[in-house]
Amino acid sequence: MDNHLQHQIPQEAFDWYDEYAHGDIDRRTFLSRLSTLAVAGLTIGTVSSALLPNYALAEQVKFTDPDIKASYAEFDSPDGHGTGRGYLVTPANVTGKTPTVLVVHENRGLNPYVKDVARRVAKAGFIAFAPDAIHPLGGYPGNDDEGRKLQGSLDRAKIEQDFIAAAKFLKAHEGGNGKLGVVGFCFGGYISNMLAAVIPDVIDASVPFYGSPPKAELIANIKAPMMMQFGELDKRIAGTWVDYEPALKANNVNYQAFVYPKANHGFHNDSTARYDEKAAELAWSRTIKFFSQHLKA
Question: Do 192 and 130 fall into the same domain?
Fold first, then answer.
């Protein structure tokens, strides 16, 4: 992403993209709003192209990288959609039992960015598993608009049960050391919070990136250490922290929270102009260190 272009795009455009990405407005409304911006030297096409995902930009670890082995695996989900499927990536050169990390996508299925995140996790020495919530409908369809519609059409409670089943599946992986972390983004951030609260004996560490909290009555169940990652400009999710943090404190949860200055919702996603390289790299280094601390001991 051209940093000059990124800094030229008005904050309103990022806020509208956030509404569009979460289904609050449709694509036509999003593009219509962009057309009202008077930005010197920038066309609506330039701005929309910068904000909409370009997954070629997001590949940091190729699936052919000799340090990892990438495949797919299915798991039983009797309380969800019956069967789930995900992207399983293991370190190629690690001997002995290895910590495991569940990687949870946004609200549009297992897109290439999240698959790359799973490869990054494996390259850091963990067994990574990234389930696809829309597997029951054929899996990620190749574009985010359709993926968002498909995920939105599924029963939310069954999706949550699928991720609970995926966590238990990964925890029991034959190559695992019995320790399980979870990291997720946006919707996946919510799932990371929810899993820590719903299956506290399964989750050993959780890192929600800009995720909404679990139901208030469940927060007292959390046992795992938590690391929260927020963008300063992400007012929608930052607003939930006002009530979430006191509840964590009240229940003596071991947590730490980081707010990245001038970063938007989705700042870790390097396929759009919301990406903040400095914040993303710092947040990711903290995430890997956190998992190493709590999962490798």
Answer: yes
